[in-house]
Amino acid sequence: MAFRRDGFLSRVSAVIQSISRLQRFVAVTVGVCGAVGQCAAADSIAAYSAPKDPPALTQVAAQAPAPGVQNGAPPIGWTTPAGWTELPATVIRIGNFLVPGEGGKKAEVAISSFPGAVGTEFDNVNRWRREIGLEPIQPDGISSKSMTVAGLEGKLYEFAGESENTVVGSLPREGRTWFFKLRGDKNVVDAAKPAFLEFLKTIHFNGSDAPIDQAAPVAKEAGEPDWTVPANWEPTPAGSMILKSFSVTGEGGQKAKITVSTFPGKVGGVLSNVNRWRAQLGLGPISAAELPGVTEPLPAAGAEAILVCINNTNMPAGHASSLIAAMAPREASTWFYKLSGDSRVVAREKEAFVKFVASVRYHEP
Question: How does DSSP classify residue 104?
Fold first, then answer.
């Protein structure tokens, strides 16, 4: 009987140990997911009905970015209007809000920041116009109003499309450009505009926009664009079909790599490339209808880039992988920028990666 009791206790002990290991695995997996964050939320719109009078404001402090997220970006705070839903930040959106409307219609508010001027006023205005189905205009057709955010002078632009409207503010500050954009169903945007303008008055900065790292000098190849490479990215030999390659190491020795390549034409389009990258992480394909969940526009000088974020945390603890890629179509070619590897390193480097892509200056033929 003693033998049977000992055997039973031994089996119970083994079960408890297995549960303990499972709990540690879940904790690590959740931690990795939180570090990587929600990579992208499409810039396509949702809708909601706002009251005719500006809604009362509810004081909400801007959440501090997670470690490795928004590296080098200054702290920023705001007061969120009542009725707006604050969503998780993304690679591009430091502030991310849903403005609901009647009948399931909606609008979104996004706060983003990029180094430098992020293209010309002409480039940005026509990009915003195209987003809501408007034809491009010439420089002499651009109109804007003056706005003040955190004591600084910026410009406010308004665009009215057939079904969607956009109100966007542009603010230069310490070598960066900040964008505050309200976009969505035209009735929702019109109703939410007073609250949006009041929202801009609550914006405040608590730090400097100065970059943390200095650019690292990197030898240039013939025909290579100009760009600013983060100091901690180490150049590595470029493989087949790769123009430039870099490596970056995490605190525990984990690795991620950055590659730059270019190919003639559209190279299969967005969906084909997204599914190719998903396959590289061991994930199945998605449909065109699911693209907005993993892509979002990335303003980049000289090109309208598309940012793609893919995570695979369904892997053994400590081995989760992520991939962030940018596609920048040019007139006769497409440029690809990719950051991939250990999820913790990718999470830490994603702000630097976005800044790198935004810094690219192409040489016209």
Answer: G
φ and ψ at 18, to 5 degrees? Answer: -65, -45
Distant-in-sequence, close-in-space partners of 314: CB < 8 Å, separation ≥ 6? none
Give the 3-state secondary structure of residue 262: strand
Q: Which helix (H) or strand (E) holds 347?
A: helix 343-358
* Residue 165 CA: distances (Å) to CA of 95, 186, 212, 228: 19, 5, 37, 34
Q: What is the DSSP string of 190-215?
A: HHHHHHHHHHHHH-EE-S----SSPB
d(CA 101, CA 181): 17
% residues pLDDT > 70 (the chain):
71
Tokens of 214: 């200095």
The CA distance from 318 to 24, in Å, is: 11
CA 246 to chain centre: 21
- What's the predicted TM-score (pTM) here? 0.57
Among the listed residues 188, 180, 201, 171, the one whose alpha carbon sits nearest the alpha carbon of residue 79: 201
Helix, strand or coil, per DSSP, at residue 259: strand
Q: How far apart are CA 40 and CA 177, in angstroms?
A: 20
State pLDDT tens for residues 260-310: 998 888 778 889 999 999 998 888 999 998 888 888 888 765 567 889 999
**pLDDT tens-place string over residues 212-242:** 344 444 445 556 788 889 999 999 988 778 8
Nearest to 201 by CA among 164, 243, 157, 152: 152
